[in-house]
Amino acid sequence: MTVKRGTLMSIEPGAVLLMQWLSPAYPVGAFAYSHGLETACTAGQISDAETLADWLGDLLLYGSGRSDPIILAAAYQAPDDAALAQVDARARAFAPSRERLAETVNQGAAFCQTTGGIWGDELPDLTYPVAVGRAARLHGLSLDLTLQMYVHASVSNLVAAAQRLAPVGQLEGQRVLTNLAPLIRDAAQNALETDLSALSGVSFVADIASMHHETQYSRIFRS
Q1: Contact 99, 222 (CB under 8 A)
Q2: Domain containing 191 — which CATH number?
Q3: How many angstroms separate the CA atoms of 73 and 172, rounded?
Q4: What is the average pLDDT across 5-15?
């Protein structure tokens, strides 16, 4: 029997590395954070796939789904360590609550430690989007691809968190992620075109949810 061999498809250099960095298996602890979703689900603001999609869509348009890629792009484009430190300081100041700050600081530190330990990159403790942006620059990865995969991974993590908190099934979760694909691409494209000086956010309900989570009596996530 003759076995036909398929033609190998061209894969953009660095895509596999980004898959590894942004995989749930990469030890940054993303599974432990809900970004305020736990409070929103407890309060009934997210109760099904439709309300989850609305919440995540607003984050991509007005919240961290828009701002974090801008921060990542600024870190990637930082010309030196001093400029990188300024981007990181801006990222820390932009966190709207104690838990959201811990979320980005802890994940960033874990990313830097793991990436430095494997590839020998000299990465100080940075916030998460700054760390990914800096590492992508050091490895010569495409900023466009890095942004798209970073935003997609962030939204995927929140969908997974919501499935543990609300009656959202596996099929529904994937449908939500699929329907958000245009907004994910737009968020990445916006980051390519937006300077850090234009950093802003108006997802007040999500920000307040993250604040309430700090004193929530019963919780399974760290944010």
Answers
A1: yes
A2: 1.10.4190.10
A3: 31
A4: 66
Provide Rg for the chain, Cα atoms. Answer: 18
Cα 66 to the center of its chain, rounded Å: 10
Total tally of structural domains belonging to the chain: 1
Residue closest to 185 by CA, chosen among 65, 52, 37: 65
* Residue 85 covered by a domain: yes
- Domain range enclosing 147: 49-213
Per-residue pLDDT reduced to its tens digit, 164-176: 999 999 999 999 9
**Residue 178 confidence (pLDDT):** 98
> Which one, of 151, 152, 126, 160, lies nearest residue 33 by Cα?
160
Residue 221 lies in a domain: no
What type of residue sits at position 150? Y
Distance, CA of 213 to CA of 32 (rounded, Å): 13
* Cβ-contact 183, 170 below 8 angstroms: no
